[in-house]
Inverse folding.
């Protein structure tokens, strides 16, 4: 069969809906300066769909650092992959600053969080090694594990009894093969907003010999007394063997990093293929990220403002009877009951008539009959934004319960 014919006949589980979804439910365009108020299809909307937790994306100090660095260096410098010709003092200093902040021996910056994680897993493991991982781990972890030709065991999300059973199985296999064990979980799970049970996982180290890799993309800069993530908030940061995060969330930028022992990071520098064979980050990104890290370290008021908004939003939703699950982080899911068609009409009404933009998750990502709206509060939001949103959610919830959205045809003008 011609591969193009195969694609024509099967556009995939998401692509099959492209004819009605593209540009509205999928690949929407939010325009204007990044912030709580942006434009969608020509109308101003209150935006709860950006991972700009600390409000850095449009902060004047950040914008100035980015602009000054672009003026000084341009986007080409440094040219080449880092191992060959793309290294710089600025990048090495940035890594040292992250290491100091995270209280880890060494750090390697990666170009992108997603491909960094995929390549990190590939570099760490060989066919003799065994992986134990949480079932709700992000796609970048799952894709990295697809490259692992050794054995892997999954446990149901945050189920510590099942996790221990898989550690027992992994221990037997690793001992037989002469391999090691890597346990992978997340600090903050980006869809549901709950945290990985790092305290209990770390306690398993007293009984089992394994290393712990934590992906904390949604925790870094947000959780913990100093913003050092979920592990800091639980008091187990020192027990995380490999800490991974991204600059794309709290720092509103591009790239990511992995922090660990010096010998581990040195090994990764010479064996992480996505970094060895890719051009290094442009200098304005590196310089801009250093400014963001400085603000994260020295200006806790951004994190404090974020949590003021988080607490107001989540307590307000719970107080009005909304189910927001077990979130203990800024990620705020709102669970409603209805089918996919009802979800489509609800989102159209929410965006067109209430001028609120948030992400929606439907079957097959969540079970049939569940509609999940995902809100991301930021330090740039206001308490007035929170109140406006809660009132709108009360209105659409009543419409959903009354059956107004249960039409066979999606209405673009309700």
């Amino acid at each position: 069969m011609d591969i193009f014919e195969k694609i024509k006949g099967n556009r995939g589980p998401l692509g099959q809906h492209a004819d009605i979804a593209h540009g509205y439910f999928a690949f929407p365009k939010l325009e204007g300066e990044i912030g709580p108020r942006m434009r969608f299809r020509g109308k101003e909307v209150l935006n709860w769909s950006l991972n700009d937790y600390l409000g850095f994306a449009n902060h004047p100090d950040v914008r100035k650092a980015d602009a000054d660095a672009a003026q000084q260096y341009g986007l080409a410098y440094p040219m080449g992959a880092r191992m060959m010709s793309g290294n710089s003092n600025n990048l090495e200093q940035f890594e040292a600053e992250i290491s100091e902040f995270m209280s880890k021996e060494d750090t390697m910056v990666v170009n992108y969080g997603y491909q960094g994680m995929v390549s990190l897993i590939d570099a760490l493991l060989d066919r003799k090694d065994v992986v134990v991982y949480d079932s709700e781990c992000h796609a970048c972890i799952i894709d990295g594990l697809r490259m692992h030709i050794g054995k892997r065991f999954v446990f149901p999300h945050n189920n510590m009894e099942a996790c221990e059973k898989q550690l027992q199985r992994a221990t037997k296999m690793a001992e037989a093969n002469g391999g090691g064990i890597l346990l992978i979980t997340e600090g903050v799970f980006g869809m549901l907003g709950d945290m990985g049970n790092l305290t209990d996982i770390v306690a398993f180290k007293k009984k089992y010999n394994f290393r712990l890799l934590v992906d904390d993309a949604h925790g870094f800069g947000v959780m913990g007394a100093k913003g050092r993530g979920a592990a800091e908030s639980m008091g187990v940061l020192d027990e995380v063997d490999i800490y991974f995060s991204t600059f794309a969330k709290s720092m509103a930028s591009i790239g990511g990093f992995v922090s660990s022992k010096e010998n581990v990071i040195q090994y990764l520098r010479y064996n992480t293929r996505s970094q060895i064979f890719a051009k290094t980050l442009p200098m304005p990104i590196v310089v801009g990220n250093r400014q963001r890290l400085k603000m994260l370290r020295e200006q806790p008021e951004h994190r404090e403002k974020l949590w003021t908004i988080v607490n107001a939003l989540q307590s307000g939703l719970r107080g009005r009877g909304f189910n927001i699950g077990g979130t203990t982080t800024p990620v705020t899911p709102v669970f409603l009951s209805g089918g996919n068609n009802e979800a489509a009409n609800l989102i159209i009404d929410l965006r067109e008539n209430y001028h609120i933009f948030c992400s929606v998750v439907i079957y097959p990502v969540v079970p049939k009959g569940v509609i999940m709206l995902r809100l991301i509060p930021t330090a740039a939001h206001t308490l007035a934004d929170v109140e406006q949103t809660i009132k709108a959610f009360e209105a659409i919830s009543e419409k959903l319960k009354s059956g107004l959205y249960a039409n066979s045809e999606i209405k673009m003008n309700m």
Notes: Residues 78-281 form a domain with the Aspartate Aminotransferase; domain 2 fold (CATH 3.40.640.10). The mean pLDDT is 94. The radius of gyration is 22 Å. The longest helix spans residues 383-402.
